[in-house]
Design a protein that fits this description.
By secondary structure, the chain is α+β, with helices and mostly antiparallel strands. Helices cover 36% and strands 18% of the residues. Helix 7 (198-212) packs across helix 8 (237-244).
């Protein structure tokens, strides 16, 4: 007796499920293949590296959905490598090998032992090539990706050019470019990095003041201070504002609704990034996708 088994035709819902799986797998093409549990060890430099010669450090802090950091990491990396050549063809790599202690003596909230870190540093630096333009560093916060710049281009200049270049593209090309970075949201350039203490923030802002607040006669330029703190309970927003506000020349008036310049301060774990941003609200708080999609 033969067994006659009829093949049941796939239903519409099953066909849709298969299509969704194929579509989902195709979306992961631009991501870095990272094994769970080895993410930080394989692809990220330790967070404490930002505190080594932090006066020379700068980079981009990119926000993404929590648990989408691996996808965002790969997409941001591809975007940086592509557009640094396109927008700044004459850029040069500024790779500096560093050996020594942290840029600050004691960080109570960073419990990594110096001996273990030095060994890890040696292994990491041996793998890194001098021509590497960007360095992925552990932001130590969910939903954040940080890339340190190793080129002679300021992060603010790069992000503004990037946003304007994508925005002016024809709709179809723009959609294609934005799909390549769909897992990212805000691209915050941080031109200055320092340890997250009030003393170091004060000395760091002195450099910011020399570059951006030298005009003592203007009264038309308004400012606002915006602070964000993640994974750090040792410093508050009020302390940051009280540290920076007295250093701003009095001819720069405060305007919280529509300021000419925004002094943006982001604390993520033991690092603090400071930058001065123009058109902060006009550029959708530097949300690249929202800014480029608006008509």
């Amino acid at each position: 007796m033969t067994d006659k088994t009829e093949k049941r035709p796939a239903t519409e819902s099953e066909g849709q499920t298969v299509a969704n799986k194929k579509q989902k797998s195709s979306h992961n093409d631009n991501t870095i293949p990272i094994l769970r549990g080895r993410f930080k060890q394989r692809w990220l430099t330790k967070h404490s590296h930002l505190l080594k010669r932090s006066d020379e450090a700068n980079g981009i802090l990119v926000s993404c959905a929590v648990n989408a950091e691996t996808r965002a990491l790969g997409q941001v990396s591809n975007c940086l490598e592509h557009y640094i050549t396109k927008l700044f063809p004459d850029h040069k790599t500024t790779w500096v090998r560093f050996k020594g202690k942290l840029d600050i003596d004691q960080l109570d909230f960073d419990k990594e032992e110096e001996e273990d870190e030095n060994k890890e540093d040696e292994k990491t630096e041996e793998k890194e090539r001098k021509e590497k333009k960007f360095q992925a560093i552990d932001a130590a916060c969910g939903g954040l990706v940080f890339y340190r710049f190793r080129v002679n281009v300021k992060p603010t200049e790069f992000v503004i050019k990037l946003m304007d270049d994508i925005k002016k593209l024809p709709d179809k090309e723009k959609e294609q470019e934005l799909s390549k970075i769909r897992h990212s949201a805000r691209w915050i350039p941080l031109d200055y990095i320092c340890p997250a203490t009030t003393e170091r923030i004060k000395s760091c802002f002195a450099r910011v003041k020399e570059e951006h607040f030298t005009d003592t006669d203007t009264t038309a330029t308004t400012v606002a201070i915006i602070t964000e703190i993640r994974n750090n309970i040792l410093i508050t927003k009020d302390e940051i504002i009280q540290t920076i506000a007295p250093l701003i020349p009095p001819n720069y008036k405060i305007n919280l609704s529509k300021p000419t310049l925004v002094i943006y301060v982001s604390v993520f774990k033991s690092a603090c990034g400071i930058t001065v941003l123009k058109e902060y609200y006009e550029r959708k708080k530097y949300n690249l996708l929202s800014y480029c999609q608006q008509k």
